Amino acid sequence: MDVADNPSNDNDWFPPLDAATQALQDLYRTLNPTDHVETYLNKLCQHAVELVDDADMAGVTVFDRDGNPSTAALTSPTVRAIDELQYLAGVGPCLEAVEKFEVVVADQDAAAQRWPGLAAEAKTYGVVSFLSVPLPPLEMGVRTGAVNLYGTRSDGFARAEVALTNLFTTAAGYAIMSVERYRGARNFALQLERALDSRAVIDQAKGVLMAVHAVDSETAFRMLVETSQESNKKVRLVAEELLASLCR
Which among 73, 134, 145, 187 could disulfide-bond with 62, CB atoms 3.0 to 4.6 Å apart, if both were Cys? Predict the structure, then answer.
């Protein structure tokens, strides 16, 4: 019988979809640009293990600007051990998911065929099944990372679990990336504001030196720089101290 012809199969989807919706709502409620992204990644891992019956542990692999992977969140120390086996070997589900930007899933037999060395080492930790879902890229062409689920049952992850994990990870990932983009824009604005403030203070100090020593703007700035180098202080601080001395 086709799945579409069996209404009971449709009903089987409702509980996990409801759970995924609740998990996403919980994640969205806690999104705060002032928190570290690791906070959300850890919550994502916790929810993933709760949502997927065959997932015994979860972690998140992220890549830095140079393309080096590291484990940013995990629900068990075993996750880091399995991740590092992949990083050292240069092969494995999490690396493949990010490289190809596609979901990678393997049960015990499939893992042994695709990554025999990794599968053998992972089995010593009790891990025999793998599911990795790529996170959405923060920038076009830049690898972000993947959510990795590891299981101890040899038959691996069911198709429904793979689809649910992909849906949840993609939705949660885009939410987290939006917060990161907002954080980046806010930090840039703050840096620009500080730069403008510094320039204003330095311009005022230059004006004082120009008036006192009858020099031009370039010479006044050079005097500030020289004092900065001699005192091992930033030019802004030298300018602030000069202005403060006028008020005494």
Answer: 145
In this structure, whether the domain defined by 187-245 belongs to CATH 1.10.10.10 is answered with yes
Query: For the chain, what are the domain ranges?
Result: 3-183, 187-245
Q: Are 114 and 140 in contact (CB under 8 A)?
A: no
> Would you say 147 and 42 are in contact if contact means Cβ atoms under 8 Å apart?
no
- Which region, left, alpha or beta, applies to residue 92 given φ > 0 means left and ψ of -120 to 50 means alpha? left
Q: How far apart are CA 163 and CA 209, in angstroms?
A: 68
pLDDT in tens, 198-238: 777 788 888 888 888 888 888 888 888 888 888 888 878 88
The Cα 122–Cα 126 span in angstroms is 7
DSSP secondary structure letter of residue 62: E
What digits encode the pLDDT tens for the residues 16-70? 556 555 655 666 566 565 556 677 788 888 888 888 888 899 999 988 878 899 9
Q: What is the CATH number of domain 3-183?
A: 3.30.450.40
Q: Which two tokens stand for residue 230?
A: 């001699």
DSSP annotation of 74: E
